[in-house]
Design a protein that fits this description.
single chain, 262 residues, alpha/beta, Rossmann fold, seven-stranded parallel sheet, globular
C-alpha cells in the first residue's frame, strides 16, 4: 500500500502552482517523493512558492503565461531543458470573470475560455513527447482541474467560467480516449469550495459557506492533495477520463454552493 500511492522517482509539472489548489497539489506531490516544477504568470510569486516548497523536496519555478499556444510551447521548452520526460502534468492555471448577462464583455469571455479550456489542450499537446517518453516505463498522467461549476449551476453570472469548466470535463473524456493509446491517462478533478484567491467566498466567509456544504466545512489542503495523489500514482492507473468530484457533497444538493466571489 505504501508503493500504491508513492510518487517516488516521478516528475510533475503544475500550472498555476504558486497558490491555491495548485500549491496544495504541489505540496502533496513533494510529500510523496516527486520532483515538482511549478508555473505561474507572476514570476516573483512563482519563485517564492518554489523556494518555500523546496524545504519538502525538489521544487523548481518555471514562470510564464500559458494563455496562448506560444506560451504553452515556451513552458514546454523550459521544462524539457530540465527533464527529458514528464510523468505528471496538472493543468490547473485558470481564470474567472463575473458580469451581468447584458454587460458580459468579449474580453471576459476570451480571457477565461482561452486559459481554462484552450490551454489544457495545447499545453498537453506541447508536452506530448516527454509524456510519451515517461509512458514507456509506466502510465503518464494528465490531470485537468475543472470545477463543480461545470457540473451544476451556481447563482453567479460567471458565464464563460461555467462554460469553460463544463467544456474541460468533456475535453478530458475526449483526450483520455485518444491518449490512453499512448499509455497516458487523462483525468480531471472538479473541486468545490476550497479557500484560495480565486475562491474568495471559501477563504473569507468559510463559516457561511460551510453551512451550505453537506460535509459541514470547506475543503482543506489534504483533501485536494489526496485526490491528486490518488490520480497521479499507481492507485489511479485504471481511472481513465473520469472527473473526480471533491466538494463535500455540494453537487448532491439542489442548488449547490457558489464557488467564486467576483
Amino acid at each position: 500500500m505504501t508503493h500504491l500511492f508513492s510518487l517516488q522517482g516521478r516528475t510533475a509539472l503544475i500550472t498555476g502552482g504558486s497558490r491555491g489548489i495548485g500549491r496544495m497539489i504541489a505540496a502533496g506531490f513533494l510529500a510523496q517523493g516527486a520532483r515538482v516544477y511549478i508555473s505561474a504568470r507572476k514570476a516573483a510569486a512563482c519563485d517564492q512558492t518554489a523556494q518555500e516548497l523546496s524545504s519538502m523536496g525538489h521544487c523548481i519555478s518555471l514562470p510564464g503565461d500559458v494563455s496562448t499556444v506560444e506560451g504553452a510551447k515556451a513552458l514546454a521548452a523550459a521544462y524539457t531543458a530540465h527533464e527529458p520526460q514528464l510523468d505528471i502534468l496538472v493543468n490547473n492555471a485558470g481564470a474567472a470573470w463575473g458580469a451581468p448577462f447584458d454587460e458580459f464583455p468579449e474580453s471576459g469571455w476570451d480571457k477565461v475560455v482561452d486559459l481554462n479550456l484552450k490551454t489544457p489542450f495545447f499545453l498537453t499537446q506541447a508536452l506530448a513527447a516527454p509524456l510519451r517518453k515517461a509512458a514507456r516505463i509506466r502510465p503518464a498522467k494528465v490531470i485537468n482541474i475543472a470545477s463543480i461549476d461545470g457540473l451544476s449551476v451556481n447563482p453567479q453570472e460567471t458565464y464563460s467560467y461555467a462554460a469553460s469548466k463544463a467544456g474541460l470535463i468533456h475535453l478530458t473524456r475526449r483526450m483520455a480516449l485518444r491518449l490512453i493509446q499512448d499509455n497516458i491517462v487523462v483525468t480531471a478533478i472538479a473541486p468545490g469550495a476550497f479557500a484560495s484567491e480565486m475562491n474568495r467566498d471559501a477563504r473569507d466567509h468559510a463559516q457561511e459557506v460551510s453551512a451550505r456544504v453537506p460535509a459541514g466545512r470547506v475543503g482543506v489542503d489534504e483533501d485536494m492533495a489526496g485526490a491528486a495523489i490518488y490520480l497521479a500514482s499507481r492507485a489511479g492507473d485504471y481511472v481513465v477520463g473520469t472527473s473526480l468530484v471533491v466538494d463535500g457533497g455540494v453537487t448532491l444538493t439542489r442548488y449547490g454552493v457558489s464557488t467564486h466571489a467576483l
